[in-house]
Amino acid sequence: MKILLFILFLPLSAYAGMMSFSVSPGIVKFETVQGSVKSFDLNFINQGDNLLKVDVQVMDLKLDANGVPVISKMSKKNGQWGRFVKLDKNSFKLSGKQSKKINVTLKTPRGGYGGGYFAVVFNTSAAKSKNGNKKSKNSMTIGGQIPALFIGEISRMGTRKMQVLKGAINKAPYTEDNPFKFRFLLKNNGTTHANVVGDVLIRHNKKVVGRVRLESGSGLVFPNGERYFVATWDKFAKYANKKLQAEARFSYSGGRATKKMRFIIK
Amino acid sequence: MNTKVILWVLLALPNLVSALESNSANVEVQADVQSSMQMQWHRLTLKDESYQKAKSKLTLDDSWMILPYGLYVELQTNDKDRNVFLHVDNLVSTNKIDTIHVDSIYISHNGKNPVPAENDLLILNPQDRGLLKTHVLLFIVKIQPYHKPGQYLANFKFINNTLP
Predict the structure, then answer these.
(1) How far off is chain B from A46, nearest CA to CA, in Å?
(2) Do the chains contact at A140 and B100, CB–CB below 8 Å?
């Protein structure tokens, strides 16, 4: 049965809008010691002209396998420090071209070790005008969200241990839109985060025939996190139907990881 | 405040003296460019050409229903590490009793095939820095027998991420 749905909207003029805002710094990297108290100031800037309503909350922070931050409800999971954080304000209104300072206080857990992560998330929406009618309270809303990411570690306590979980090449046919690529998945089995760089050595008959850099942004991997590293090789055609070997080599502060794989380009 | 003024004078003094002694002065300027993100949008209706153009690219059977509105979004950032996703919440009835869960909602992005709205839709990535990105977004419901007729409200959120 086909049903009829309506989505309520305010008049069009009320649903054209703009937002322009920023948080500085967007990423806070820090070292701390067990039991100490650290204080940070964030600056929320409303770069637009309109009044914004801003709600601030502390949330968990993880990275997905592509290095994109994943923000989720605060938990007590290992390495998530959100529950040790206090904010000096949880909501405010801010006029256009104004800024607001928000203080973040972290009480570093005793008995904690390795890395600790959280996000201070700013949820914004257009503030309701004073003469808005009751109907406008039940309308479609468009909001914005921007986090400040906190990436910390307890000094000299964490370990970094990378493992290459798997490596693969993409499927043929290879074209300009689908170039020949290597992709490796790396896992951090340590207790703190690491920035990883890597490359791939390609061999044919034990002779090196190519070397390509593995790309993955900053290469940051959180503990228990995984991250893809990708490299494009443009000289693959010369080695079609030949047996090749690829050796992925990763390095990071305190260690190295490698993985070899054999493949044939069809 | 006074300390800032005194510091500024002390730093500027050598350049001012140098300028008095010669016809020109070399002044070094250092500025921090603030990361910024501009987002503008307006609602599209059935009458909008861009709505009709995007809709004409879609071929959907009777089990789908294209909502009679869409969003036109413009985004621009100067930040090389910024990406933006569109997040869609459940549709909630005006009496707040019924919901159409986000797993029944799909988004057509610039007239392309619908993608599930339960996954936030990437609408700006780091390679787009400095570019004005425009998007026409249509919302489509995969009709389920348990969906109840009525008037529903929608919530959308632009999620900014700075890549660490």
Answers:
(1) 10
(2) no
How far does the CA of residue B23 sit from the closest CA of chain A (Å)? Answer: 39
Nearest CA among A22, A248, A19 for reference residue B32:
A22
Picking from A154, A171, A189, the residue at the C-terminal end of a domain is: A154
Residue B1 covered by a domain: no
Q: Which residue bears the tokens 């700006």?
A: B124
> How many domains is chain A partitioned into structurally?
2
* Domain presence at residue B23: no
Q: Give A202→chain B minimum CA distance, Å.
A: 28
Residues of A in contact with B158 (CB under 8 A): 19, 142-145
Contact yes or no for B101/B162 (Cβ under 8 A): no
Name residue A162's beta-bridge partners.
A188
Write down the number of H helices and E strands in chain B. 2, 11
Q: Does A63 touch chain B (CB under 8 A)?
A: yes
A12: containing domain: 2-154
Does B19 reside within a domain?
A: no
Q: Looking at the complex, does the CB of residue A255 fall below 8 Å from at least one CB of chain B?
A: no
Nearest to B149 among A4, A69, A217 (CB): A4
- CB atoms B164 and A151 under 8 Å: yes
Give the CATH number, domain containing residue B144: 2.60.40
CATH number at residue A177: 2.60.40.10
The radius of gyration of chain A's CA atoms, rounded to the nearest angstrom, is 24
A250 in Cβ contact with A186 (< 8 Å): yes
Q: Any idea of the CA torsion for B67, B87, A66, B162, to the nearest 10 degrees?
A: 140
Dist. CA A54–CA A121, nearest whole Å? 10
The Cα B105–Cα B147 span in angstroms is 12
Q: Is residue A220 less than 8 Å (CB to CB) from chain B?
A: yes
Put simply, whether A151 touches B (Cβ < 8 Å) is: yes
pTM assigned to the model? 0.81
Interchain proximity A138–B37, CB inside 8 Å: no
Q: Has the ipTM of the complex gone over 0.85?
A: no
User: What domain count does chain B have?
Assistant: 1
Domain boundary among A125, A154, A183: A154
Taking contacts as CB-CB distances below 8 angstroms, the residues of chain A near B42 are 12, 15-17
How do the pLDDT tens digits run along chain B, 164 residues long? 555 656 565 555 555 555 555 566 677 766 666 677 788 888 888 899 999 999 999 999 989 999 888 899 999 888 888 889 999 999 888 888 889 999 999 999 999 999 999 999 999 988 888 889 999 999 999 999 898 888 888 888 899 888 88
